[in-house]
Amino acid sequence: MFSSALRVVLEDKEELMDLKEYGNLIFPILERGRYYLVCFDLKYLAITVINNMHLFESPVKVVDDDDFFLKLTPMKLVRNCLYLIHKCTASLYVQKDVVVKYLKRVRHPRYYDIAARHPVRLEIGWATIGNYEDCGIYTMRHMETWIGIIEDRWQVGFPTDMAKAKTKIAQLRKKYAVKLITSEANKHRERILKEAYQYAGVNKKK
């Protein structure tokens, strides 16, 4: 399933399937109605979890319990190490082992090194408290700007002030809506644009 989904993303380009051309693999995750990222940095050898929610509110919890591994759960975070179990429901839970096994199968030169790394949640200065609506926008912005584990060079552009952050989120929401609507991948693109032009023409005459 992983390789078939990857083939779709890579537009069936066989020469890219070994992933040697990529320094970062970024997976958006939907968990309990919340979006966040799991990023595999194949250059600097790190597996990073990026979640806009503050640690105390996030569904990705730190658990220190000897019996935890005996429990059934789609994800486990132990001493800041996240273990994701691959499960296909309405969303796809990315599992470290799935990625590692694929890297091994395609003989990626960094497979052994990334297999030895534990996923770690990234602490961010713009983490939110009480915001349950904007995780998708945060996730898209994180995907758009993430350059790898070199954190001091990451310019995500989110203010720490919540009022200013809301303004930024509103701007990004419009930006991403336009990109999604006008994307060539949107099969309804022509119809929507035609209706938009007609609406703009009517308003202009008024």
Please give a handful of descriptors for the protein shown.
single chain, 206 residues, four-stranded mixed beta sheet, two-stranded antiparallel sheet, globular
Subunit organisation of the chains = single chain
Query: SSE order in H/E notation?
Result: HEEEEEHHEHHH
Q: Report the helical percentage.
A: 25-40%
Number of helices: 6
List segments where confidence is low: pLDDT < 50 over at least 5 consecutive residues.
61-94
**Gyration radius, in Å:** 20 Å
Bin the strand percentage. 15-25%
Quick check: average pLDDT?
78
Structural class: alpha+beta
Q: What's the total number of strands? A: 6
Given the C-alpha coordinates, what overall shape results? Answer: globular
Q: Sketch the major β-sheet.
A: 4 strands, mixed
Strand order of the largest sheet: 1-2-3-6
Distance between the termini: 53 Å
Give an overview in words:
It is a single chain. The chain has 206 residues and is α+β, with helices and mostly antiparallel strands. Helix content is 35%, strand content 15%. The strands form 2 sheets. The chain has a 4-stranded mixed sheet, with helices on one face. Strands 4-5 form a two-stranded antiparallel ribbon. α4 (135-145) packs across α5. It starts with a helix and ends with a helix. Residues 61-94 have low confidence and may be disordered.
